[in-house]
Write a structure and sequence with these properties.
The protein is 50% helix and 21% strand. With 285 residues, the chain is an alpha+beta fold. Strands 1-2-3-4-5-6-7-8 form an eight-stranded antiparallel β-barrel. β3 and β4 form a beta hairpin.
Amino acid sequence: MKNRLVLCSLLIALAMLFAASSASAKVTGLAGKWSGYWKLDDGSRVPVSIEFSDSSGEKERFTAPEVMEFTTSKIDLESGMVLLKAKDAKTGKSYHVEGFIQNTELSAVMTVGDTTGEFYVTNSFFKQLDHTALSTYLRESEYGFVFFLTIHILGMSCLVGANSIVSMRLLGVASSIPLQPLRRLFPVMWTGFIMADVSGIAIGLAHASTRLWNPILAVKLVIIAIAAPIMRVMQKRVFDDPKISEVAPPPSAKKLAAAQLILWLLVLVAGRLVAYSFTILGEGY
């Protein structure tokens, strides 16, 4: 019993040391290009980028809005505190950045002459996407995100609704309904498919850092990559061939129909779960 207590104590101590060391390592992957914006008082954003030549933070420069070397560079790799100064030789303006780096993000206040504003740069590709003009508009505008979300819902309704009608008919539901006239529903399906894809990309870009690498979204996309070709096969084998009998569809028709119902249902479920990724997967999603 005593040995077990000692072992548990050691494990707890090691875990605490690991957590402490992880917490202190605020700055990771410093070398490279960091891009973002400087937000002015009127709400406009000026593109900004910094280039770090090494991981020490001693060699860096502005590459936007102007190319200039830093005259002062103080970066505490443990605490993440940052102080950067530069001077534009052309205009004579002094740049002063004071803030904090944590992992892949530098948040600070930048003063240029008499103008002070929020400063943000990151070396994460997905976070950089988050702060592009398009992503910012989709996320922050009054109508942008709502518009594309509405288009996405309409697209999925056309796709899954029309597909379900055709699939259930092939499985024997409402067998008195003629089969071939249902061929007219396939343009509705493909139109809905395109609407859902385009709007889905826009929705993903609005929250790129938490959506585009989301495991639930990845599962959804894999299912779509399987379901869409099967839908095309069903259209070709059952509806595009004039030799197919109205009374006796091909033997594979029911299997294709069942697969369609299951796959598109899974797509709908996965799509709903993406909105609850934080609850399911934890922080960062």
